[in-house]
């Protein structure tokens, strides 16, 4: 997996790189502003994901994001911030970002979210969405209203919590001592119980209804 991490705070970049580079399958390139991001995209091999700091030079609110998203053959982009408002995040999702990462996330959660997004899913921290008023649908589709709280088994609750943490099926299986096909079956069952179509909507439904 090739990542481009763009943040003007060198300490944060170095800390994040040190942690992520422990993963043997992750290659990281860094940038300090939007201009550097554009230059790297033009001259470098394709990336699987770009992480853009919301407040770094050249972002101009979401102007820099728009510039990167409109670049031909642009890879998926996620915003990372410690100060962004939910209104800004909502707007970023309508523009087409793959996800939003809050700088208060633990390193392990950040890694799980990055892998989650690299697989094609969208991500937003559940804790971020549970603050304040209920958020509109930021991901895809609508969250169905459940007439009563689903009764999940302990195993289903464990799998749902892992989904909320941004873990992949492989990681969930490893943590729970189960095979990946078994985890896929649990996810399919959870989606049916929650009345949703995919794992991303399952996470949103879990947040909306106070699960697991």
From TrEMBL:
Please give the coiled-coil regions recorded for this protein. Answer: none
Per its UniProt entry, which superkingdom is the organism in?
Bacteria
Query: Pfam families of this UniProt entry?
Result: GerE (PF00196), Response_reg (PF00072)
This protein is called DNA-binding NarL/FixJ family response regulator
The segment(s) forming the Response regulatory domain are 2-118
Q: Name one GO biological process term.
A: phosphorelay signal transduction system
**Protein species of origin:** Roseinatronobacter thiooxidans
- What Gene Ontology terms describe what this protein does at the molecular function level? DNA binding
Organism phylogeny: Bacteria, Pseudomonadati, Pseudomonadota, Alphaproteobacteria, Rhodobacterales
Instruction: Give the InterPro entries listed for this entry.
Output: CheY-like_superfamily, EvgA-like, NreC/VraR/RcsB-like_REC, Sig_transdc_resp-reg_C-effctor, Sig_transdc_resp-reg_receiver, Tscrpt_reg_LuxR_C, WH-like_DNA-bd_sf
